[in-house]
Amino acid sequence: MRAELADGTVLVAVVTYNSERDLPALLGSLPAAMDGLRGWRLIVADNGSTDDTVGLVGRLAPYAQVVTNEANLGYAAGVNTCLALAREGEAVLVLNADVYLTPRAVPALLAACADPAVGMAVPLVRRPNGVREATLRRRPTALRQWGEALLGGVAGRIPALGERITPGAVIEADWANGAALLMPSRVVSRIGWWREDLFLYSEEVDYCRRVTDAGWRIRQVPSAVVYHRGGASTTAPELWAQLVTNRVVHLARWEGRGAARLGWLALVVGSLLRLPLCRATHRRALGALLRGRSRLVRGLPSYPATGGRPPARVVVEETGARP
Question: Which helix (H) or strand (E) holds 66?
Fold first, then answer.
């Protein structure tokens, strides 16, 4: 067994941005979720919150180390802020601010990483009402973009046509939703930083691709349960536009420009088909796709979530040792 697993030490990395509504549930759940570990610590990377997020962490979790970034640098930059402070041998648990964990969930995730073939362990995720989320996904391809554009959520019933995997069908996948994931130190040391230029969305898809390309597996641990509030990307037009455009960027980087062009067209068609359902959201996505086409198909992000402005700090490293 690796030293990191024998030691049972975990760094909990939480990225916040105006998260005061969600934090009490998360922070309150951590002690019981860590029960059984030899040691753990919490680092909160705050991306320039304008509410009482930082003060709330200080009151509810005075043991936490809080790092305040000067602006909203994006989710990946927040994760990297925490990774830069990780100690040798620590596993890293990345958590969204809008999740809360069940007792002893984290030791179960860590135990899964005792298998040297596992490069990332993820929990079973439920909505607050108990409904299980479909968090496991297949690798993005242009064909799957077309399948989902034309067929919607049912496309995943045919593996070649959709990324979404029916909950309970498998416990290993090409990538998993980034709301909660645990990476053993051996993986963090080899794979390195998250891609900050993606700002928000698809950063976990990119990281999972690098993990699986290095020969590791991504495994879900059904006994580790996390509840996820979520939902912002489906209601905020600018966030949905960021999610959609980053899908094109991901295809360009990993499958080539030809695949990116086909994926871009699929997303345009999908947005047009869905305009009557949610006009503001899909109109924003469609506009971002049309305006950003030349950049997106070359693997260069646009930033609809920030009004077109790139994050203040962009660090892109596909590999490299952690500081």
Answer: strand 65-69
